[in-house]
Write a structure and sequence with these properties.
Elements lengths: L9 H134 L5 H12 L1
């Protein structure tokens, strides 16, 4: 086999290998390498630009989230303030209504006590008058003479006291 005859064929094969390698390298790789470098550079620039825009977007979204949280906290504080104010207003209104109601109830109680005292006085006067009349009738039946009405009334008053 002539391929394995290293003495006659080896050096020409090495020469042809070097020629074809040089043709392939300078013919294909040489023009392709700058284009490949340009594509890699553009891709790296695009990736770096995308990373920068992503960082900018993240910073903007973080700022929006912080603003949102601050807005929520402010709204909660305002709501708490309104709730406290509403409770205080309701308590003040309730106190005022209770004060008015208590005043009305006290006035009604005083008028009822006055009416009760008047009714008690009338009842006592009626009781005294009935008791004096009954005592005078009893004394008349026992003694045969009717005592004076003022004497019977004073005797009943002293007995009832």
């Amino acid at each position: 086999m002539p391929q394995f005859d290293f003495t006659h064929v080896f050096w020409p094969q090495i020469a042809w290998l070097a020629v074809f390698f040089a043709i392939l390298y300078f013919g294909i790789v040489g023009p392709t390498l700058p284009k490949l470098g340009k594509v890699i550079g553009e891709r790296e620039g695009k990736v770096m630009g995308d990373i920068a825009s992503a960082e900018t977007a993240k910073a903007a979204s973080d700022q929006l989230a912080a603003d949102y949280e601050a807005g929520v906290a402010t709204a909660q504080d305002e709501a708490r303030g309104r709730l406290v104010k509403a409770r205080a207003d309701a308590a003040a209104s309730l106190e005022a209504r209770l004060k008015d109601t208590n005043a009305a109830l006290d006035a009604r109680a005083q008028s009822a006590e006055a009416a009760l005292a008047a009714a008690r006085a009338n009842a006592m006067a009626e009781i005294e008058s009935v008791a004096a009349d009954a005592a005078a009738t009893i004394v008349e039946k026992l003694t045969g003479t009717r005592p004076v009405d003022t004497a019977a009334a004073s005797a009943v008053r002293s007995a009832l006291a």
